Each structure stands twice: as structure tokens, then as C-alpha cells.
Amino acid sequence: MAKVKHKNKLKTRHYFFLSPYEDCAFTRCPKCNDKTKIRKFPLVIHIEPGQLFLLNKICRYCVGCDLIIVKQSKLESLMARRLENVRSEVIGNEYVTMGVAERKDWWEGRDGKIDTCEIVNRMYVFKDMLHFELIPAGWYRSDEK
Which of 60, 69, 106, 109 is positioned for an S-S bond with 36, CB 3.0–4.6 A? Predict the structure, then answer.
């Protein structure tokens, strides 16, 4: 029996942090402590059940760590506003930010020139989704004594 080779390997780009913290702007990278930049990324988001959503979002970005930081509350409010007139039944459903698209793919997807399967084939999946725990200044974790 012949082995089947899959030509559609997932392409990866960027690390991703969905910040649940309302009061933290992440002007400095939580990983390397360098200043973050402001960049716009076309995010590819999967909303249950089976809804693909493209959102061109301004995010914090650490160039050195290749880390995109998005505030969860802002992402959810933008998604709700964009979906309320189109697919209001999916607002509040579980979602996952899967990766980023090329800018031209975002334009084509937005204009309906390419279908969702093509977007998934062209997108870049995040290398990893990171989680950071905020420790207030002057505090330490019990395991760091």
C-alpha cells in the first residue's frame, strides 16, 4: 500500500496571548520585558458551531518574542458588534483564535471572493498560545522564596 503525502501542512507564525486582564495594557512584553509595538493583524477566529470569522484587529506585538497580545474583552466586544446584524445567534458562543491571515486574504475573505476552506488552507496557525500570570509589584509567589 502506498503512503499518502499531505501537501497541506499547517504553516505557523507568531505566538499568541489572549489576555483576560482588564487593567493591564501590556506596554511591555510579559516574556522579555521589552516595549511592545502596536500592529494590526487579520485574526482568524473559529466560533462554534462551525463559523469562521476574520477580524482585522489592532494588537500589542513584541517583535523580539514574535508575540501578539490581545485583550479578551476588546476582542469579544468587537466580535459581538460585527456579528450582531449578520449572525447574532453565535454571539457568546465558544471561540478560539486560530491564527492570522495574509492581508490580501483578509480582503478577499471580507469581500466574499474566497471561501472558508481556502482561508483555512492559506492561514498561519499560531506557533503556541501562551498564558501569563500577573504578579502585582512587590508580591512574590509562594514557590519563589
Answer: 60
